[in-house]
Design a protein that fits this description.
Length: 347
C-alpha cells in the first residue's frame, strides 16, 4: 500500500511551471488555479496541499501542448531536491544502497509512479507502477510521469558512473512519440515501445559502484529521519487500512458506517472527521476497495461481469460499470480483453 503525504514542497509544482514558462507558455492561469502566489511557489520551504499540486499539474498536462515535458522538467531536478530522501540517496555507499533506500522511502517523495527493483541474470531492472490512477488515463499524462521519473534516475548516474547515459535499455508501454529522438539523446541506449512495462534496465555491475559523496554518518542520520516520517504517515493511514480489513471479511456485503464505527470503537462523527482529515470519506474507501477487488477478478478469473459485480457488493451491474468507468476511464470488458498489457498499466 502506498502512503501518500497530504502535503508536499511547492518546488514540485514550481519546476513544472518554470519548464512551461521557459517554452513560452503564460503560467499565470495555472498559478491562479493553484491558489498560490509566485513567491509561495518559489519558496522551497513552503508546503502545499498534495491535492493542489496534483490538480494543477493535471490541468497543465491537459491544456499545454509541450512535447517531452516530462524529460524537460525531470532534467531540472537535482537528487538533493527530493528532500531528506535525496540526501539519504546522495550519501549512500553505493548504488545498491541508494536504490534500497529509495524503494523503502519513495512514498515520501510524493510519487506519481513508484519503482520496483528486480534483478535477473546480469541485468537489473527498475519497473514502474502508477500510484495515482488519474495519471494512467491519458497518453500525455502517462508519458510525462514516466519520462520525469526515468530522466531523474538517468541524471543520478553522474554521481557513480560520471555519465547520465548508463542504462542498457528503456521500455515504454506507449507507442513511439514524434519526439522519440529526444529519448535517444537523453538515455543513449536501446529503446522499445509498446512493451508490457515501463522500465529501465542496467548492468548489475553498477550496483557496487561507489557514490562520489558517500558519507555513512549522514546516510544513517537521514535514514533515521525518513523512518520517523514514514512511521508517522503510516499511522495516519491506519484508519483506512482498518476499514479495508473489515471490508475484506465479507467483500459482497460492505458494512455500514455505524457498524464500522462500532468495530473501531469510535463514534460515527469521529470516524467521518478522521477520514475527512485524510482527504477521503467512508463511501470513497468502500468504492476503492470494491474496484480494486474487481480488477483482481477481471484479470485472474473468467467470471461473468455481472457475477463479479454481485461478488463485490453492487446491487446492479450497471452501477458497477458506471463506477469502474469513472474511476479508470475504461470499461470492465475492455480491462479484461486487453489482458496483461492493461493489467500492467493499471496496476
Amino acid at each position: 500500500m502506498s502512503v501518500i503525504p497530504t502535503r508536499c514542497s511547492s518546488c514540485y509544482l514550481a519546476r513544472v511551471l518554470d519548464t512551461i514558462e521557459e517554452a513560452g507558455v503564460d503560467v499565470q492561469p495555472y498559478v491562479d488555479h493553484s491558489g498560490l502566489t509566485r513567491n509561495e511557489l518559489c519558496d522551497n520551504e513552503q508546503q502545499i496541499p498534495h491535492s493542489t499540486f496534483k490538480n494543477t499539474l493535471l490541468k497543465i498536462l491537459d491544456e499545454v501542448d509541450l512535447p517531452a515535458l516530462g524529460l524537460l522538467e525531470g532534467d531540472r531536478w537535482a537528487t538533493v531536491e527530493l528532500g531528506i530522501v535525496g540526501y539519504a540517496l546522495f550519501s549512500s555507499a553505493d548504488l545498491q544502497n541508494a536504490i534500497n533506500r529509495y524503494i523503502r522511502y519513495q512514498d515520501l517523495c510524493v510519487p506519481i509512479i513508484k519503482l520496483q527493483f528486480l534483478v535477473a541474470d546480469e541485468q537489473a531492472v527498475m519497473r514502474s507502477e502508477f500510484v495515482l490512477p488519474e495519471f494512467e488515463r491519458d497518453l500525455t499524462r502517462v508519458r510525462y510521469s514516466v519520462e520525469q521519473a526515468f530522466v531523474q534516475w538517468a541524471n543520478f548516474g553522474r554521481v557513480f558512473a560520471h555519465t547520465k547515459q548508463w542504462f542498457d535499455a528503456v521500455h515504454f508501454t506507449f507507442p513511439e512519440p514524434e519526439y522519440s529522438g529526444l529519448y535517444s539523446q537523453h538515455f543513449g541506449c536501446r529503446i522499445k515501445y509498446e512493451q508490457p512495462f515501463n522500465e529501465f534496465i542496467f548492468a548489475v555491475g553498477y550496483l557496487n559502484a561507489p557514490l562520489d559523496f558517500a558519507n555513512k554518518k549522514i546516510a544513517r542520520m537521514c535514514e533515521q529521519l525518513c523512518d520517523s516520517v514514514l512511521t508517522e504517515l503510516t499511522d495516519k493511514i491506519g484508519l483506512v487500512h482498518d476499514i479495508q480489513k473489515l471490508l475484506a471479511k465479507n467483500p459482497g456485503r460492505a458494512p455500514r458506517l455505524p457498524e464500522v464505527a462500532e468495530n473501531l470503537f469510535m463514534s460515527e462523527r469521529t470516524l467521518r472527521r478522521r477520514l475527512a482529515g485524510e482527504g477521503t470519506s467512508f463511501q470513497q474507501v468502500v468504492q476503492d476497495f470494491r474496484l480494486g477487488l474487481a480488477k483482481k477478478y477481471l484479470t485472474s478469473s473468467i467470471l461473468p461481469i455481472a457475477e463479479i459485480s454481485d461478488l463485490i457488493g453492487y446491487s446492479e451491474p450497471a452501477n458497477f460499470h458506471r463506477a469502474f468507468c469513472k474511476k479508470f476511464d475504461i470499461t470492465p470488458n475492455q480491462f479484461r480483453e486487453h489482458g496483461d498489457l492493461i493489467a500492467a498499466k493499471f496496476g
